[in-house]
Amino acid sequence: MTGPFVLPVRDIAHRSGEMREHELEVPAPGKWGEGLVAVEAGEPVDLDVRLESVHEGILVSATIDSTYRGVCGRCLTDIAAPVEVEIQELFAYPGSEATDFEVQDDHVDLETAVRDAIVLSLPFQPVCQPDCPGLDPATGERMATSTGSHDSEPIDPRWAALQDYTPDHDDEAPRLGVENTEES
């Protein structure tokens, strides 16, 4: 069993309390993610891994760092941002109770656990900045960088009567149901 995410555990298998640590930088073997953003194939994936032998198998704890790339869900600008996740999975010894992962040929293959953790941590609606205003519905331009004046936009006829309204009118208009007590 070989591969960039495969780690040997022969020296700690069935030796409860034994531990090994590994630091790896592995290129993502394929595109991870299907939404607006993904970790692209070949993108470096940094792993800080701890393997601990326990009675049931090998307990894997890892911190994973990489970068996702894609487009903003509001303005469609290209974005790239770091992604950091932590995992903890038990790789059971063969023949023990069924788990999602198993020690095979004195090795653990972390690829599925790492990929699943990264994909689940990717934002569903990524944005280039938290207050991204998106695209102008009339022009299709990005509103954050739009230089055009919005005063020339056509006014909806239903709201045209409010165009002349200003806060100054509040001071001049009598309030309904309240008598004017000021004397001039």
Molecular structure report:
Helix content is 8%, strand content 33%. Strands 2, 3, 4, 5, 6 and 7 form a 6-stranded mixed sheet that branches. Strands 1-8 form a two-stranded antiparallel sheet. It has a domain at 6-121. The chain is mainly beta.
Task: Give the percentage of residues in beta strands.
Answer: 25-35%
User: What overall geometry do the principal axes of the alpha carbons give?
Assistant: elongated
Report how far the terminal alpha carbons are from each other.
96 Å
* Unreliable sequence segments: 146-151
Q: What keywords describe this structure?
A:
184 residues; elongated; 8 strands; two-stranded antiparallel ribbon
Quick description:
The chain has 184 residues and is mainly beta. It has a domain at 6-121.
Compile the SSE list and pairings:
Blueprint: E1 6-8, E2 19-27, E3 37-38, E4 44-54, E5 57-71, E6 78-92, E7 101-102, E8 107-109, H1 111-121, H2 169-172
Parallel strand pairs: 6-7
Antiparallel strand pairs: 1-8, 2-4, 3-5, 4-5, 5-6
